[in-house]
User: Fold this.
Amino acid sequence: MTVHKKFEEVTVKTESIYKGRIISLQVDTVTLPNGETATREIVKHPGAVAVIPLIGDKMIVVEQYRKPLEKSQVEIPAGKLDAGEEPLKAALRELEEETGYRSDNVKLVSSFYTSPGFADEIIHLYIAEDLVKGNANPDEDEFLECEAITLEEAQQYMRDGRISDAKTIMAVYAWQLYKLTGQI
Amino acid sequence: MTVHKKFEEVTVKTESIYKGRIISLQVDTVTLPNGETATREIVKHPGAVAVIPLIGDKMIVVEQYRKPLEKSQVEIPAGKLDAGEEPLKAALRELEEETGYRSDNVKLVSSFYTSPGFADEIIHLYIAEDLVKGNANPDEDEFLECEAITLEEAQQYMRDGRISDAKTIMAVYAWQLYKLTGQI
Assistant:
């Protein structure tokens, strides 16, 4: 895949501000295409996976509390990549940990950056079909509740604001397109 | 709109780590539903708008360098909310600044959180039709190039990785659904 560098901003200096448990923050000083200098605040993230788990005409979602939003949200199963972990393996791990289901029929939908203006977080989004029962096993500090919803219920959740994060809205659109066109 | 608080995490302490030009970072100590304590790394962001600008059978996109990714990306026009700015007004401002087009036919597609695990950033996504020529006027440190692309070209850009951010992939899906169903 060609990496495009149009209007490249060249790093003059990198200042590390914070290294946390999950994210870190740095401020880069850059040279702009016109020769001027600017600063860029950059959050580094290990990357994540998310899964659209389809069972019959329903999708499995999980409700959990999202501290940055100060409310609970209904989302597709997702989680961070462990160090060196292959995304597909992480997706299958998170699917089973959070929902108790396994699948041998998993396809990549897309890999996307959530906030390219200030963060390098990438999410690898998969679709999983032909689910079979495994063992749910959420992380220790993870409290969540699973539910299987129809497309119409998902769209209602979007109108109600119970589904309102990028990856889950993208999942609902992809699911609707899959139903309409037969294509991922 | 009801705010759901299932599995609420109650703040015990907030430590401010950094206040920047665009984002700030804080670490909250919280009490979990089981009584245990955990920390949450939280990026605060002013919020943003993005626009799907349709002209005939094409969508207008902008290419710009994304420092966190160290590459340029093709995205729909977007930008941060100014302090106190109403999202629809911001969307019309960014549309004209970045593409040179105005519109009186603008509808909200959805408002979504980009990274609810570590950031409060919200993007208000609009669709704009019946575009008329105004005046392009990018910000001083903003270097970008506009292009009008068909749905098929957008899908090819996604396969090539030139389009790979959440809001633009969501825009392409929403546009495809709009063409298929006539509904936003």
Summary: The domain at 48-181 of chain A is CATH 3.90.79.10 (Nucleoside Triphosphate Pyrophosphohydrolase). Chain A has three helices and twelve strands. Chain A has a mean pLDDT of 96. Chain A touches chain B through 77 residues (CB under 8 Å).
